[in-house]
Amino acid sequence: METLNRMVGLLPYNLSLEVVMAVEAGLGELPAYSSSTPGCEDPMSFLQSVCHTVIVQGVSAMMAFPQTRDELLKLEFIASALQIPVISVVQNEFKRQSKMPMHNPALPQVELLYSLLVINSWYDVSLLLCQEWNVSSFLVRLRNNTKFHLGSVVNITTSSTSSGSHPNSSIFKADFYTSLQGYLESIKKSTSTVVTFGCDIRDIKRIFSVVAKLGLMLPEYHWVLGDTQDLEELRTEGLPAGLLAHGRMGAPSLDHYVQDGLELVARVVGSAAYRSPELALIPSITNCMDTQSNQNRNMTSGKYLARGQDNFTASKGRWTGPCTVKIVGFLSNTSFDGLSGFISSQQETVISSESHHFIWSLQHDPIGNPMWTRLGRWKQSRVLLDYAAWANKKSNKQSSYQGADWRYPSRLHLRVVTLVEHPFVFTREVDEDGLCPAGQLCLDPLTNNTPLLQSLFLQGPNDSIPMKYKKCCYGYCIDLLEKLAEDIGFDFDLYIVGDGKYGGFKNRRWTGLVGDLLSGAAHLAVTSFSINSARSRVIDFTSPFFSTSLGILVRSRDTAAPIGAFMWPLHWSMWLGIFVSLHVTAVFLTVYEWNSPFGMTPRGRNRDKVFSFSSALNVCYAILFGRTAAIKPPKCWTGRFLMNLWAIFCLFCLSTYTANLAAVMVGEKTFEQLSGIHDPKLHHPSQGFRFATVRESSAEDYLKKSIPEMHGYMTRYNVPATPDGIEHLKHDPQQLDAFIMDKALLDYEVSIDADCKTLTVGKPFAIEGK
């Protein structure tokens, strides 16, 4: 129950599932009780007993364990009267036949074998019978398809049993091997696929001992065990690699069916709550009399689940197989993979538990030992193949969550290659224990040799791998890889591409990331890997996760300021306006002072000094430049008021000048003026203008196809990686004048440039995806 309540997304609105136990006469056998009391044979008495023990607890659904068909009919009566879903778990089918018989669905032997043959295009088939076996339905299925060629149908016990020898005698064994060898010789000449029926493990071992002598081993010949097998009974000794088998991994127990019944209720409650929470979440009834008297008026969560959305009459159903379930409304639309099998609705009122039926192949593990590996499963009348050929060890976190639950398929294990490209992929050193506190452990083996990579990863990350190979990879692409592995469900080993290249076609072979993918050294590449037509022809890309374009990076240079640079902060018209207004103010100050009776003029009152036009200019310039000087301030009130207005004006002008001076004069730089990829400096380079890009990158591929003349000139300057291009650009003296690469990478380099020596110029071009 706690497991169901912890499942994410199963129950909304913080709901939880709770089980209340009620044992009373007529309830049937619960798993923890031996028998029921025979005191409630009457249906009404049975109903009253249920009301007094179960309904009073306010349940939304009930689970019962009837042992006879009479008890099942009483439960049907309960479901109809109370309109509450009743899940009846029946361990064995009833002896009495009913309208809807409850039994295990027929084993999918014929259809499964037929599907396996069709999937692998094995149309030449022979049958090998170890005993008298009815294979008529399988033969009919093959003959109905004209693609199949049916070879021999051989019963290897015919001749040996007719001799009358004891099975353990040497005569019997000699006759058996002689006849078997003759039959296999006839099969060898006619077909390439052999399906066995009625053979146990001893028969199979004897068959393959003769097969090995005749040279009928896989992959030339395909062997399929036609009978349903139990994985616990299968052996690996004396059997060839590639042998196919199918069957179940043990029969589900009663606990599995009980758990699936509870999960069925939880899923139904969740679906109903999502659809109509106002009905699904209202309190359940606790009095049967209220239900019978107000049946048309009252609505409870149990009634809502029982009636469903449109049908307002209680419907009932059964779970076929070893269990029976009363289902209604939302229940008939619920399906999921349970512990006992795939739970789904087969008919309007029937829920079926289809047992887990798997397909195995005898393979060799990485060490070389034979092991049975799960290839797929039979589900809903079709074969579903797993993505992995090997069942890898799960992580501790996953193991703790799933435990030994064999419902979950083996996970795909991939070898992933990456390329260190900031800001998408970074690396740092591992700690002293060889672990990564943050990021993913990755290997930097400096090679793309597939056998060497396989041997390194087989050793394990912390066993005998030299410390110099270990790195910690992190960044945007690594986070994306981790999320992808979590969503799809696969594990991975990560390593850095050996030659440090994206991949180009050189010397009749692909290099870099593309070469590793084509050689099989890596199954997946995750980095800032641009998509272009050449690469798309040989490898497959996912949908782009980042759109970018190509850009041009140049270096800025410090220059000496000219003598008139102090005037750059303000426009020439501003300077002109300031000096014109200064002289106009000086004129008005002089006029006001000379026309005032209190002014410093020869006609003024006892004035020893005279305020002339030169005095007015001296006052205005001193205020403008903020410098103290021996001035003659005006004495009239009008002149003093005008002088204060001029001071306020000068304050605004000086503040603006100072702010602009800091922005203009500090760090004044020049840079190469490039309008874009079609700039004449790039198409017609002169005076030693040098530009480059990364070798075997998408930028080089674009320039090679679009502008071959430019590509031919820049080949001598191309660099192996982006950091090398940045270094050549910032080096003193400069080794490059411009660097062409993905604009996203260039923008990142500009953002982390502490010396502010680089900047991107021109318009972006060649929009592409990663």
TrEMBL record:
The record marks L674 as: Crucial to convey clamshell closure to channel opening. One of its GO terms (molecular function) is ligand-gated monoatomic ion channel activity. L-glutamate binds at S530, R535, S698, D742. Residues 466-519 form the Ionotropic glutamate receptor L-glutamate and glycine-binding domain. Residues 413-770 form the Ionotropic glutamate receptor C-terminal domain. It is a multi-pass membrane protein. It is found in: Cell membrane; Postsynaptic cell membrane. It comes from the Eukaryota. The chain crosses the membrane at residues 572-592, 613-631, 643-666. CDD domains: PBP2_iGluR_NMDA_Nr3. The record marks K704 as: Interaction with the cone snail toxin Con-ikot-ikot. One of its GO terms (cellular component) is postsynaptic membrane. InterPro entries: ANF_lig-bd_rcpt, Glu/Gly-bd, Iono_Glu_rcpt_met, Ionotropic_Glu_rcpt, Iontro_rcpt_C, Peripla_BP_I. It catalyses: Ca(2+)(in) = Ca(2+)(out); Na(+)(in) = Na(+)(out). Keywords: Calcium, Cell membrane, Disulfide bond, Glycoprotein, Ion channel, Ion transport, Ligand-gated ion channel, Magnesium, Membrane, Postsynaptic cell membrane, Receptor, Signal, Synapse, Transmembrane, Transmembrane helix, Transport. Its main location: membrane. Receptor for glutamate that functions as a ligand-gated ion channel in the central nervous system and plays an important role in excitatory synaptic transmission. L-glutamate acts as an excitatory neurotransmitter at many synapses in the central nervous system. Belongs to the glutamate-gated ion channel (TC 1.A.10.1) family. This is Glutamate receptor. It comes from Coregonus suidteri.
